[in-house]
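Open question from group meeting: does this chain pack into something compact, or does most of it stay loose? Before anyone orders reagents, we agreed to write out a predicted structure and look at it together. Recording both the input and the output here so the notebook holds the full record.
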Amino acid sequence: MNKRNKVRKLGKKSVHRKLMQKTQLTMLLEAGKILTTTAKAKSLKSYSERVLHGSLARNNDKVRQARYLKYYLNTDLSIKNILKYTETVGTAVSIVRVSVRPGDNAELSEVYLPDFDKIKKASKAKSSETGKKTEEKIKK
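Structure tokens returned:
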């Protein structure tokens, strides 16, 4: 009987489950959206909101936020993305049910960060502008 059990077990041992959540969160922060089963999506949503909110609770100190996120994430790219995302949007993570998987009829859901693509486009525009400025300096 599973009374008062807050953790979704997902049919995995605790070490494998934690590593899977960490990997999925890293992929979500690099790409902006991922496709997974509904049970894993719900688990990922609660985990990612907890991590995003925890990074905001570090009093907007970039070093403290980065150290906190380094524990939960695998790459530095995702840390940069999350710092930009939490500054503008906040801790929102959304789930949309998409379809069923053809092999086993598992319900698939898409987990995404709202307005993540706008932040990514803005960062690419800034990097291209700085690249143009450095090229102009080199030519002079």
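Observations to bring back to the group:
The mean pLDDT is 81.
The beta strands are 33-37, 94-100, 107-112.
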